[in-house]
Amino acid sequence: MSYRIVHLIKPNLRVRLRLDQLQIIDKETGEVRSIPLADVAVVIAATHEMSISASALRRMAELNVLLLVCNEHFEPCSLTLPYYRATNTDVLRRQTTCSLEWKENIWRRLVTAKIRNQAAVFHSNPKVHDLLRHIADLCEHPSAKLAGMEKTPLDQVTPTRRAGLHSDTPSACEARAARHYWRHFFHGLSSTEWKREPGSRSGVNGMLDYAYAVLRTAVLRSLAAHGFIAALGLHHADREGSFALADDLMEPLRPWADKILREHLEAGNGEGDMKAWIPAAANLLAREVRIQKSSVRFLHAIDLLVQSFQRAILEQADLPLKIPIIPDDAAAVRLDGRL
Asked: In 197-273, where does DSSP find H-type helix?
């Protein structure tokens, strides 16, 4: 199984194929490095003046190796995908005939896992952690009411707002969690930014955009390998040029990127320092994570998630998804008396 993530950061590189090896040549120093292409999952080109041969691109496509290209601001601007080839026609047929009820059930599972992972990011902040866990519980069990919710003072809240507070739809739960999550996320970093702004191209938001692009690339790679049409999603809009299904399945994975960004910044790395952040963000895919009592690389965990989604879609059943969940240490921290 391919697992390596290759970063191309230095300028003036030449990339070619030699005996099924990706050969990287530094044109300034003459240094040559070879990597077995069968071991490579993703190539990230975050450099200028790089050339790559057509034979390398062709073989990368055959082996389902994705190439993510960044511009001069280190923003992902291009992604190569193999020309679609069905590996399982049953998956295609099922994907185009999914019922709305089935999609809603699967989407609820994904959103619940996302909010639980967001809560785990704040395991050291019991107030935010517990609030997010409560929202996740409401999302997972829509018929249940959170303890004490009926006692919430709503006399000064508009009817529309009141309905939103009590709504248990996945979209409403996701929006409520996001309001609390992002406010505290940026506050804890002492950042000049104070809210999530996709596409801002700088600072913490720019670093988040890059990490999410890496995750999206990995999910797209797995979807292509399992015969899915990435443009046909569950919740995200199916529109021209979109990868809606990848955006759906990566939702519970986003807090993993948030977590390693907080660790990266708390270690003293500067906000907006993309040269340091590019390898750190991509190395998430090589990190060991626990999933169903097994320790696997994050890239393999994504494959397990897509495989479990494939089984669910083939059976059109509300089967459990193998989603990597961030370890929630809040209870252990409380027992240690550190809160």
From this structure: 203-225, 244-249, 254-266
